[in-house]
Amino acid sequence: MQGTVDGFSYGLVTPLVAYLMACLGGALGLRCTTRSMLVAQSWRPGWLALGSAAIGSGIWTMHFIAMMGFTVHGTPIHYDKSMTFASLAVAIVMVGIGIFIVGYRGARGTALFTGGTITGLGIASMHYLGMASMRLDGKLEYNTFTVGVSVVIAMGAATAALWAAGQVRGFLWSVGASLVMGLAVSGMHYTGMAALSVHLHGTAEPTTGESPAALLAPMLVGPLAFLLLAGVVVMFDPLMVMGKPTVAPVEHRPGIPAHTHTAVPHSAHRLRFRPRRAVEHRGARTPQNR
């Protein structure tokens, strides 16, 4: 028996809140990635790790807030707690791999493509692992083509977001990129949900696992507290808000090799010609003194 699937049982409330959570995690993660490109090598891993955790927590929270509005008529839905939080770990680790690649190799060429691909696959893996944590009296079936489209959306969104983070521009630039990333992650989620159909077994056997109400508290309190703390770090770091520092050392920026012959400041040009004029002036006065 085919089950009736409803992904908007609370109307537009869950999609909007889920989108805002994806934007918040994306904004914090992209600013941390940008910040890592403005510091010395010793500080870079910390900022990249913070960015990975922010983006992973944001998309994971977005997914399960959206899933609160997901119902299947004819069967209750429960969740396996261990698999649910395993999807959070997968999201953070795979997003982290992509961010570290871009953070150390630069947001261009092969590094950008590799990092965006891995990050996008991490987003998609989190989504489908989270879906696999559902326990209900039925079988989940997916349309292969629509699933492929959702994965492509995730990869494209991740690549575009990492490219934006690698531009090392101001705060508003990253905010715009996070809005696009939030829209793409939400689009990937609902595209994946459109690929889903549920075939009910029609048995009276009780389902096992945690209920959505039991998962709501740890799901929201933990990641939301972390995102708020990350937001405080962002707000109290001037470089996170202003963007580029006054002088950005070339040798500390990823993807740009250090050159021995750098551009000479304007003041250095003036210093180079002053001794020459002084020598010529003394040479002109020498015959007069004699």
Automatic annotation (TrEMBL):
Signal sequence segment: none
The protein's name: MHYT domain-containing protein
Organism taxonomic ancestry: Bacteria, Bacillati, Actinomycetota, Actinomycetes, Kitasatosporales
The UniProt record lists the keyword Transmembrane helix: yes
Membrane spanning stretches: 12-34, 46-70, 82-104, 111-130, 142-164, 171-193, 213-236
InterPro entries, A to Z: MHYT_dom
UniProt keyword annotations, A-Z: Membrane, Transmembrane, Transmembrane helix
Domain named MHYT: residues: 10-199
